[in-house]
TrEMBL record:
<keyword id="KW-0333">Golgi apparatus</keyword>
<feature type="region of interest" description="Disordered">
    <location>
        <begin position="1"/>
        <end position="23"/>
    </location>
</feature>
<dbReference type="InterPro" id="IPR038261">
    <property type="entry name" value="GPP34-like_sf"/>
</dbReference>
<keyword id="KW-0446">Lipid-binding</keyword>
<dbReference type="Pfam" id="PF05719">
    <property type="entry name" value="GPP34"/>
</dbReference>
<dbReference type="InterPro" id="IPR008628">
    <property type="entry name" value="GPP34-like"/>
</dbReference>
<protein>
    <submittedName>
        <fullName>GPP34 family phosphoprotein</fullName>
    </submittedName>
</protein>
<keyword id="KW-0472">Membrane</keyword>
Amino acid sequence: MTQQPDEPSIEARAKTPWTANSPGSPILPEDLLLLLFQPESGVIAGENTLFYVLAGAVLADLALHESVAITTTRAGSINVEAVREKAPPSDEILLSAWEYVSDKPRGVQTVLPAIGPRLRHPLLERLIARGDIRRGNRKVLGFFKMTVLKDSQNGRRAGLLKEVRDVLVDGTEPTARIAALAALIGASGALPQFDPQIPWTSAVINRAQELKRGNWGAGATSEAVTRTMTAVIVNSVISTAAVASSHQ
């Protein structure tokens, strides 16, 4: 099948790529999908706008590694473009998005729906292959078998959730990665579903709002550009998802 000009490619072509953290480590959208998975019900929270949020996580991961830059046009719209001085990412999902914006700067709200729809399946398969989520069977009406998702109880989701909770509830100063995760969960609209593990209180809501604006804490001053870029991406996710929801 011939690839369309505006369709992100999926093949890695980098000779000297960087890895997201260390070889084989989860990328940010994997961690986000794992957190949005609700073990009690076996569903993914925020399915209606999930692909925008996952696409935002892809861009945020690239932003955290300074592989994309955010620019403002004369008309005031926000563009994202690849930083060509950096080696392309080795991860094929991140590479696909990076290549999509390497051809030319593209509006963030154009990129999100372009790269988002195809993310859920491969990211979920990675989580299953990694052993973070497992597939199981459940009987419906006593004899029909239905495939369901279950928590593997390997502790990785619980560990991520604790880090996010520490930031939102206890006010712990986050790492850039955890700040981005917490902000994206807030952007997904799924934060109330984490109650009571993360209580749905005014203090938590306010803290989530601060993270979405890029207010990560005094120790993050050296990451000012990254914070700004991540905040732009997160708020683009919110506005794009809101527009999409209004048309449903």
